[in-house]
Amino acid sequence: MSKKYALVIDMKRCVGCRTCTVACKMENNVPLGIARMRVLNPQGNIHFDKPVGVYPNLKMYWTPVPCQHCEDAPCVKSCPSGAMHKREDGIVDLDKSKCIGCQYCAWVCPYDVPQFDKDAGVSDKCTMCAHRIDKGELPMCVKCCPTRAIKFGDLNDPNSEVAQLINHRSSKVLLPEQGTHPLTHYVF
Asked: What tens digit of pLDDT does each residue of 160-172 get?
């Protein structure tokens, strides 16, 4: 059975520090004005719940939003040059050398993940640090998360930490009504 890599984000652990955003920018030399990993609070445009409960028993979650690495990725379907492609291991990758700057990927992504780098004239997005994974290393956001809220692993391995988290905790994906079947999961 082939691998199906995924990120699982523990919403009880994320404190909204944005270390994942900074680590990603440093590892991937992400240009100013672009964030491959956004961390939204409940007032952001993608979230699960607004603050829940009655004072003083309120709950509020921060929502880290990397690429969702969708099984049915609209960005891959819409890319005319093949720059946006799905790897066999589930990662939605971007080959910037093939990108023609049409921005179709950004227009069709319901998660607002691909962003256009005006200086380079190409799209930019989270690749789950595929270059690190290929060397047996963790994605940088996972490695640097100070609260260990972001987990990485193979969903096809029932003994992996990510599979265990999804099977034993309440799990959600962002915007399930879009039908993209994201591999990034959130546990509560």
From this structure: 999 999 999 999 9
Q: Which residues on neighbouring strands pair with residue 152, listed in sequence order?
A: 7
- List, in order, residues 6 or more apart from 29 with CB less than 8 Å away: none
pLDDT in tens, 47-99: 555 566 677 777 677 899 999 999 999 999 999 999 999 999 999 999 999 99
Give the CATH fold of the 5-187 domain.
Answer: Alpha-Beta Plaits (3.30.70)
Neighbour-count burial for 105-119, b at 16+ CB within 10 Å, e otherwise: bbebbbbebbbbbee
Tokens of residue 75, six digits = 């960005």
Tell me what the mean pLDDT of segment 28-46 comes to: 82
Domain chopping of the chain, boundaries: 5-187
Full-model pTM:
0.91
The maximal CA–CA distance of the chain, rounded, in angstroms, is 53
